[in-house]
Amino acid sequence: MRPHSRYFLLKEDVKAGAWFLGDPLDALGQKVEDIWAFTEGRPVQAQGRLKIPVIEPGLRLEFSAAGVGATPIVHVRVATVLAELAPEDVQLIPVEVEGCPDQFLMLVATKLVRCIDETASREVQRYGPDDGRPEKLGQYQSVAGMRIDPAQVGDAKVFRTWGWTIALVVSEDIKNSLERAKIEGATFEEV
């Protein structure tokens, strides 16, 4: 672990007038069967070139969360930073964004880290036996005010959190590089 490491949730900075992207589609224009596979913290097998529909036209963001799975879609400028600083932590899959000539890629964090600090987080709730979701037993049902234990992260710079994979976490050096590049659409929250 790097001493005094800080980590941040990387999220879309939702603004009025910005585009809204839909769920990924396969090469035939059908919804991808398992949209959640892109946020599970492991590499994925892409079946042909994926297409991303624009549900609401507007300002094109360089970091967007597409569809209900909030799959990160990033401009090539973002992908370049991530590929340089965290090549072992990311899978970048070229996608075609409807009506957009710019090069965009889907960002898949390939590491899953068990690091949520339950005592430091504001509130955590886990799935129990009475919740009717046996496949989620022990995983987080909700996490508010999430904090992580940096000692558990190891050398990961981009990762998903075990049990709460909707959280996409980046290291401080990734955050700083994206901020220096003035990436449109990204916001950071320290965890």
From TrEMBL:
Domain Immunity MXAN-0049 protein: 101-191
InterPro entries recorded: Imm11
Pfam families: Imm11
The protein's name: Immunity MXAN-0049 protein domain-containing protein
The species this protein was found in: Myxococcus fulvus
